[in-house]
Specification:
By secondary structure, the protein is an alpha+beta fold. The chain contains six helices and 20 strands.
Amino acid sequence: MKALWSRLRRYAPPRGQAWCCPVRRYAFDASLSPSRTAPPAVAEAVDFVARPSRQSETVFAIRRYKPRTPGLRHLRRPINDHIWKGRPFLALTIVKANQGKGGRNNSGRITVRHRGGGHKRRIRTVDFARTAPGKHQVERIEHDPGRSAHIALLHNPATGRKSYIVAAEGMRAGDTVESFRAGIPPELMTSMGGTLDLGMLAARTATRGNCLPIHLVPVGTLVYNVGSRPERGGVFCRSAGTFATVVAKDADDDNGRAGRYVTVRLQSGEVRKVGRNACATIGVASNALHWHRQLGKAGRKRWLGIRPTVRGVAMNAVDHPHGGGRGKSKGNVKPVSPWGQLAKSGFKTRRKNHPNRFVVTERHRNQGKRRSGTGK
């Protein structure tokens, strides 16, 4: 008791003042943590704060929790207080009952391992094509359990219809977005003097959340939800924090016909061509800090429908080529899959005879070696 009193005297208030008990908090609003280099558009949208240090690090805010339970000790979540707290717009959702097959095909055999269970969900029907013209009002930003990025509920004042789109980083309720895939509006052409001025057009259309044919996007612009062909919706850069950069556009030929393709660079380093009339949304996909999250416990992995992954050396010899034996030994065999296919050692699975003709530069692959190229 004497030792406890001596410890409490360090925090004793001056004479004449009462003791003050602190308010107990279970969730801390922000925790500064170092991050990798973020793109300029993301840094502007999320309000990154640069902390002066010897190593130029980017600082961001992550919510952490007081460890009342072991599962909360390592739980880390991005701060997304702008997310809608209620239910989704039910007319744009589909019941997922009897659709979670647990990785099984039509004959009941497991074709995809580590799938099964998870919380009950509803599938959100997201408009990736965005062919409806006119201005749309952003009603709210919602969480979609089927993807890492957030989705935005749009309302068309002219028709009264609602739709879901992949939200851009920094998009908030009350914003106005527009799709120009159906053509340039007549009032916009009139404001440009009846002629197509690419510079003025980019200044009025290339704003966050707008969807354009990719040949109207200025070179160097960050885009997401990028399509590959005119008749399709977006197929590239749809997950959280992803984007592509418009690198170049094909020049017109001698007969005056417009170029067929636009070249974009993906975050993986791959440079590829897409159709000039393919869709592209200005900005960066929302929830850019998604990859900084920490689930905190194994149970949250099960809530997501992901079952445990068992190592091959922990199995029996009948279940895996690495199984069996005494101790942690996989035998004198190279790393292989449960069906005997090589998993490392530079084993190639891509075809050589018919490469993808739309890929200009492939992404970097280190073939299981270190980035230095020494292989050690």
